[in-house]
Amino acid sequence: MKEQESDAATVDTAKPSVIEVNDFSFAYGEKQALFNIDMSMNEKEVTAFIGPSGCGKSTLLRCLNRMNDLVPIAKITSGNIEIGGVDINHQDVDVIELRKRVGMVFQKSNPFPKSIYENIAYGLRIQGINKRSRLDEVVERCLRGAALWSEVKDRLNDSALGMSGGQQQRLCIARALAVEPDILLMDEPCSALDPIATAKVEELISELKEQYTIVIVTHNMQQATRVSDKTAFFYLGKLIEYDMTEKIFMNPKEEQTEAYVSGRFG
Ligand SMILES: Nc1ncnc2c1ncn2[C@@H]1O[C@H](COP(=O)(O)OP(=O)(O)OP(=O)(O)O)[C@@H](O)[C@H]1O
């Protein structure tokens, strides 16, 4: 027990871990963005990434579904990331399949310039699923899952661009659910939302964790305490401390964590 307490990146857990980050280092060209990150994230829990701007939160998040493959100078410099025991960067891994399993919601909602219905149906249509009854069923399930159904059920054919910002963000969450992911990555999903829309998305996150493993990057300390089970604090590309959220905010082990969560830097 003592030994475990001395390891900042080890968290006791009853649930099986689904994401394992092992000695993972990552660079953009000559710029080292992440240094030897070791952590595991658990099934059906919410893990928050916090830390000052530029500390590598989004980089690690994007590595979890290989979004950084799109950056030509980006490279892994040590270690690996396993999801469900599979090294996600192995040459045999189909990145499209990976991204179906590991969905992503971005900072700024980005609905397609299509109807509300088609925003959700799109992910199925590109898989060749066009049967109306099947699409209807998925659209309803996802909109209900994203707590949006009652607000939009009478205007499914209206443009998604006519929705409020908060509704658009929940639509993007619904769209991510359509391909039945196991994991949802959220990169500051509420930063463009007002407090009421933020509360709705946070409530939704708490509901979604019944079914999904969620990793969220947030600059909002209160949000991390409200929605996450565990919190990882990063600084200058290093994982400084990773523990139960309550512990990170109420009784952190590291001085840097204490300084950050109490607003003394960052
Ligand atoms: N596409 C890129 N090309 C080059 N460097 C990058 C790229 N993306 C991020 N970086 C650099 O990697 C480091 C980590 O950036 P990252 O965006 O992961 O930090 P962050 O903690 O998410 O910051 P923020 O809170 O401001 O979003 C920074 O120094 C950043 O400048």
From TrEMBL:
Segments forming domain ABC transporter: 19-261
GO terms for cellular component: membrane
Protein name: Phosphate ABC transporter ATP-binding protein
Top-rank taxon: Bacteria
InterPro entries, alphabetized: AAA+_ATPase, ABC_transporter-like_ATP-bd, ABC_transporter-like_CS, P-loop_NTPase, PstB-like
A Gene Ontology BP annotation from the UniProt entry: phosphate ion transmembrane transport
Record organism: Puniceicoccus vermicola
Organism taxonomic ancestry: Bacteria, Pseudomonadati, Verrucomicrobiota, Opitutia, Puniceicoccales
Gene3D superfamilies, per database record: P-loop containing nucleotide triphosphate hydrolases (3.40.50.300)
Keyword set, alphabetical order: ATP-binding, Nucleotide-binding, Phosphate transport, Transport
NCBIfam families (UniProt xref): 3a0107s01c2
Pfam families from the UniProt entry: ABC_tran
